[in-house]
Amino acid sequence: MNSDLERKVLDAVPTGLLIGGEWRQAASGATTKVEDPSTGEVLAEVADAAPEDGIAALTAAHEAQAAWAAVAPRERSDILRRAYEAMIARQDDLALLMTLEMGKPLAESRGEVAYAAEFFRWFSEEAVRIDGGFATAPAGGSRFLVMKQPVGPCVFITPWNFPLAMGTRKIGPALAAGCTVVIKPAPQTPLSMLALGEILQEAGVPAGVLNIINATDAQGVMEPVIRDGRARKLSFTGSTGVGKILLEQCAEKVLRTSLELGGNASFLVFDDADLDKAVEGAMLAKMRNMGEACTAANRFYVHRSVAEAFAAKLGERMGALKVGRGTEDGVQVGPLVDAKGLGKVVDLVGDAVAHGARVTVGGEKGSGPGYFYPPTVLVDVPQNSRLNHEEVFGPVAPISVFDTEDEALAAANATEFGLVNYVFTENLNRALRVAEKLESGMVGLNTGLVSNPAAPFGGIKESGLGREGGTVGIEEFLELKYVAIGGLS
Ligand code: ADP
């Protein structure tokens, strides 16, 4: 199965747990296999943490906290900058590794490595700009001094869809702020995070500041770590269901929490939209990562007067995409990550068809090995289809028609999620009016891509708490301490 290059890249990855600056086996000796989703073959076997490993990682992070917080901001910044440069220097190898374990086409993996590295560059710049405040009390006399200090040891749990970027956007600000970390990557894609751990060590991250534990028993290993009380912050990216469980666990010791949860993005195309721009945006919003993104356009609502033309243009583009193993030349759509993900896509498309939707492109899963599903377009999708309410996390574009702006807004907001919505219109008044009324943390206005390390990423409603990236990103890892100064006149 593997070319020499693939074997070389796989063999170079550490396969242990990173605890206290050392790579070690799980206390139980257990390992778990990592699969290639395009063939089902085993790529590697990595250590599978037991609960005592989780606690050992937390102890290491806790013991390293005070010294790391005392490291000069410029030094923390330089470490992140070196890690950024190392990631860019190793972009091709990291991309190949990511494609092998996750499935996305190589070009997209390269893009993710650059995007992920950018969080380190951004937060290396933020590390030296942590400020505070000083003010005179309104009545005179006392003064207010406000200082910012690291929250403390952090626990991170990340998903498989962006194996590097979902890690770096938490690790970057945490290290910049002076916090230590225990991170658990997703069991489907631990290799990218393990490779990143080695890069961060080489960049100069001291022992214990970054600890990586891969664990298939996520709850069994992470719950004791969260409930322990020595970690002061949890940042999680994943499903809303798991996010709610973790929020409850955090309540016991009142951990600070940042949650990036599920989405159900609408993609609104008004009659005054530039249709070519809308189709371009739709391809990006729908097909980036094979649709396996919380920001993916999940539901398309198109004005009746342009619906047919939009569906035809989108269908043509979707139908022309090349599906295959992400390592092959020219492949634009890789496999879904696993059997569960593929099963959900099959179910949701089946449900929409049963409710009266029509498939115009794709719609039939192949029979070969790997978790492939073809780019699919559905029209006349009734509002009560599951596709309009649940994240499909696959290359499926369901299109429904609307007549008025109010109707489009009501449909877009008829969800418990609130991560992102996309709007295509050339009318400035409408653009701003609709953007204000959409219930989401982010809006893509005439663009299908909102993610940027320099912008505040995050959702409202059941899509999460807090923001990642931008100038506010580091604040999630800082506590304010207010010192009241008396005795002055
Ligand atoms: P998905 O269904 O896309 O895999 P999940 O929310 O289940 O999304 O997984 C995201 C991350 O959360 C993964 O790292 C997974 O191992 C972890 N996870 C899942 N369930 C739990 C849990 N009960 N406690 C802690 N981590 C969990």
Fold and architecture overview:
The protein has 489 residues and is of the alpha/beta class. It folds into two domains: 4-261 and 463-482, Aldehyde Dehydrogenase, Chain A, domain 1; 265-453, Aldehyde Dehydrogenase, Chain A, domain 2 (3-Layer(aba) Sandwich), CATH 3.40.309. The protein has 14 helices and 20 strands. It has helices at residues 4-11, 51-70, 73-89, 91-102, 106-127, 165-177, 190-203, 218-228, 240-251, 275-287, 304-319, 339-354, 405-413, 428-437, and strands at 17-19, 22-24, 31-35, 42-47, 133-136, 143-150, 154-157, 181-184, 210-212, 233-237, 256-260, 265-269, 297-303, 358-361, 376-379, 396-402, 420-424, 442-445, 464-465, 478-485. The protein has a seven-stranded mixed beta sheet, sandwiched between helices. A six-stranded mixed beta sheet has the order 9-8-7-10-11-19, sandwiched between helices. Strands 5-6-20 form a three-stranded antiparallel beta sheet, with no helix packed on it. Helix 14 (428-437) links the parallel strand 17 and strand 18 (442-445). The site of adenosine-5'-diphosphate (ADP) has 13 residues, from helix 8 and helix 9.
